[in-house]
Amino acid sequence: MVPALADAGAGTIASRNIYGRRPTKMGYNPRPNQSHRLARPRGVRFVVSYRCDMKVLLTQDVYKLGHAGEVKTVADGYGRNFLLPRGLAFLATAGAIRQAESVKTRAVKTRATQQSDIDATAQVLTGQTIHFTARAGEKGKLYGSITSATIAAEIAKLLGKEFDKRKVALREPIRDVGTYVIPIRLAADVAPTVTVIVLAEGVKQVVAAAPVAAEPEPEPVAEEAAPETPAA
């Protein structure tokens, strides 16, 4: 039998769930090994609204976020779903913070040696237009899609060398004919744009411009945390 909430009238915001436990960051905390959907008393609303932040140490330069070796406070979802899986940062634990200066020093040296190459690449890509022709239906819907890997392959042809598809800031594959302006993130503060035009097979004229297909900007940084000195 599920214990009822005491004095929980219509419209009451319950501070505990139906098992008497407070809501957790992921929602309300059910009874262990309880896999079925929880029944909630009629008239009782459960309001769980959290914004969780986390501190990370950047291991690489991240566009519009910071440079390698910096400790940043970012939204939990942005850190766990984007930064950590891609190896762009790791959790700013006491041990990690001790390595912040060495990471920053290595990044400065790497940035200095790569800056000329980044500038040259940006100069080549700025203003470039890449054309694709694909099978499409009558309403302009492609039978396939244009992905970041497809665009990176064309950029590699322009540069005469391999190009990392992760630098193509494409939010989702292109599935419609149209014109798209896409940023290419070469460094934290260098992002030239290229124009991608997708035409249906047999169509030679340029189609009308479509919305930009770039990735959404990273969530605003809550604050910049200074490196902490671990306790002895």
- Please provide the count of β strands: 11
**H and E order:** EEEEHEHHEEHEEEE
Q: Biggest β-sheet: count, sense, barrel?
A: 4 strands, antiparallel
Tell me the strand percentage band: 15-25%
Mean pLDDT: 75
Number of helices: 4
Computed structural class = alpha+beta
First CA to last CA: what distance? 52 Å
Low-confidence stretches: 1-19, 25-38, 206-210
Indicate the CATH topology of the domain at 126-200.
Answer: Ribosomal Protein L9, domain 2
Shape: flat
Task: Explain what you see.
- This protein is α+β, with helices and mostly antiparallel strands and 232 residues long.
- Among the domains are: 53-113, 3-Layer(aba) Sandwich (Ribosomal Protein L9, domain 1), CATH 3.40.5; 126-200, Ribosomal protein L9, C-terminal domain (Ribosomal Protein L9, domain 2).
- It is built from four helices and eleven strands.
- It has helices at 76-83, 94-98, 100-125, 148-159, and strands spanning 12-13, 44-45, 53-58, 71-75, 89-91, 129-134, 141-146, 174-176, 178-183, 193-200, 223-224.
- The strands form four sheets. The chain has a four-stranded antiparallel beta sheet with strand order 5-3-4-11. Strands 6-10-9 form a three-stranded mixed beta sheet, with helices on one face. The protein has a two-stranded parallel ribbon with strand order 1-2.
- The longest helix is centred in the middle third of the chain and has 26 residues, at 100-125.
- It is flat, with a radius of gyration of 24 Å.
- The N and C termini lie far apart (52 Å).
- The relative contact order is 0.14.
- The model is unreliable at 1-19, 25-38 and 206-210 (pLDDT under 50).
